[in-house]
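seq as requested:
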Amino acid sequence: MTARTEKDWPEAVEVLNEHGRSDIVLLCEHASNHMPAEYRQLGLDANHLQRHIAWDIGAAEVTRLLSAKLDSPAFLSGYSRLLIDLNRPLNTQGSIPVLSEDTGIPGNVGIDATERTRRAEIMFSPFHDRVTAHLDCRAQAGRQTRIVTIHSFTPVFLGVSRPWHAGVLHDQASDLAEAILSGLRTDAALNVAANVPYVISRDADYAVPIHGDDRGIAAVLVEIRQDLLSTRRGIEEWADRLAAALPAQQAETIP
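struct tokens:
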């Protein structure tokens, strides 16, 4: 395999600090906007790959900093969500979108079952299998675990402004969500709330219900407004905020 091929087809998951001592496990399913050359940008102009439709702007950088600050393991995606969305159940409408926000995705129209399976095998399953294996190891070692998955959202969606600076999405893990929100609200200037600008559902989410709720692990999804992550300073500020807001647990060592 040549260096070029390895660069064009990276690993589906980048793992940071896998043996970190924190009980927090970080996920970032929309970390990358990468597409292998053979997909020809799915028929889109290059500028579309810099938009939210291709990835969650700023989320990867926040995740990396948070992993270091908390001494937490982190799992980041290697491919664009336009090829296959790691936070959507397979074979749902949002898994391989033909329309994202108001933009048609020509390269996803009419793809057959073979291509869907190929993308799942290369990009989706390896990511989630690696997360599952990590969670299994923690469970076998008797380690406490909480999942925090990091995302970002657009300030305006289909012409509607979104006033929140951040949201914490949850289903069963309401206590963890409220603890994080309480920590963020120590800054009175922040507009933060639960389950905004989205809500968790099994039709439109994967990590929280599958890796979290179904395993009895407290799991939340943190959404940060993208304009607040447009500079390095903003990214660092939000990593600091989240590190301070996450309720502390005693660090553990892996046997």
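The longest strand covers residues 146-153.
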